[in-house]
Design brief:
Layout: H1 4-14, E1 18-22, H2 41-46, E2 49-50, H3 63-79, E3 83-87, H4 91-99, H5 109-134, H6 136-140, H7 147-160, H8 164-168, E4 182-185, H9 189-206, H10 208-216, H11 221-227, H12 233-239, H13 245-268, E5 273-276, H14 279-295
Parallel strand pairs: 1-2, 1-3, 4-5
Helix pairs in contact: 3-4, 5-7, 9-13, 10-12, 12-13
Length: 296
């Protein structure tokens, strides 16, 4: 909600020989457009935006997949005599590309669904205690009620016979084929929260409720619930008559603010990152990078 895309477009209007790679783990999904502030088809074409609107809700696409796809795209973009520009707020995507990542095994959906159904009877505490026994390192990093993360760790152990933490401690695949200059824009908190409120209001005005209702009444409802993208599940609760529309919209604002806080914490913890609280300072930094690139 800080306005990253607007700054990216501002730069690319000035330098049309760039192509944009999205690092947004929500905009990858088809059919989730308004609630993810996905670029329009016109913007995708005008700015040559990649990794947007190509994964079905419920289909697995990991940080490893992002890094592998982005490395391929960077090579293709340079091969066209153009320059890659990566923009998005999914910190794990950025970190995986820059620092490398260990590939985690594919899913065992049957086993996962069994554990999920068992939580109704046994509760999250039962599975958290299982995790503590097989992977105390991962358990230490996991909230006892974060059932999705707990079950994923149990699923990995079931598939591989190894704990998630031991796999993650292995040698990461390095996708770093060039130098990255990472710039982070964090507006002052009051400004950021006001931008988030305005963004939610614009989404509602643009038809978010109708988009969410269509998904709720369609075949993708369960898949969208599992993706758990802010803006949809809150409205699903409204359609379920669990909360009022005003309460659902307030939850979208609240959850967006919480998500922004987590993003800020993540990026402040990254190495070799330039952080600015003014948009013009970000643009100036990026212009200097472009100037350096074009001198090469």
């Amino acid at each position: 909600g800080a306005g990253k895309s607007g700054l990216a477009y501002r730069l690319m209007d000035q330098y049309p020989d760039f192509e944009l790679i999205s690092a947004d783990s929500r905009q990858i999904y088809k059919n989730l457009s308004i609630g993810t502030a996905k670029p329009t088809p016109e913007e995708i074409s005008r700015y040559s935006i990649h990794l947007v609107d190509f994964v079905e809700p419920g289909e697995r696409f990991t940080a490893y997949d992002f890094a592998a796809n982005t490395r391929r795209l960077i090579g293709e973009i340079f091969g066209r005599g153009r320059y890659p520009f990566i923009c998005g707020g999914t910190g794990l995507y950025v970190k995986s590309l820059v620092e490398g990542i260990v590939k985690i095994p594919d899913d065992d959906l049957t086993y996962r669904e069994k554990l999920m159904s068992d939580t109704i009877e046994k509760g999250p505490k039962y599975f958290y205690e299982m995790l503590q026994k097989i992977d105390p390192v991962e358990a230490e990093k996991t909230h006892p009620h974060n059932i999705k993360r707990i079950i994923r760790a149990l699923e990995i152990y079931h598939i591989t016979g190894k704990s998630k933490s031991s796999l993650m401690a292995g040698t990461p695949t390095n996708f770093n084929m060039c130098d990255f200059d990472i710039v982070c824009y964090i507006p002052p908190r009051d400004e950021l929260y006001e931008r988030i409120n305005q963004r939610v209001a614009e989404m509602i005005k643009s038809g978010l409720i109708a988009e969410a209702e269509s998904l709720y009444n369609g075949s993708l409802r369960e898949a969208v619930e599992k993706v758990n993208v802010i803006g949809y599940n809150e409205l699903f609760r409204y359609f379920n008559d669990e909360i009022t529309l005003d309460e659902a919209v307030n939850l979208v604002r609240q959850n967006s603010r919480r998500f922004a806080k987590r993003q800020i914490t993540w990026f402040r913890g990254m190495d070799n990152i330039a952080i600015y609280d003014a948009a013009d300072a970000v643009v100036t930094h990026l212009q200097n990078i472009v100037f350096s690139l074009k001198k090469l």
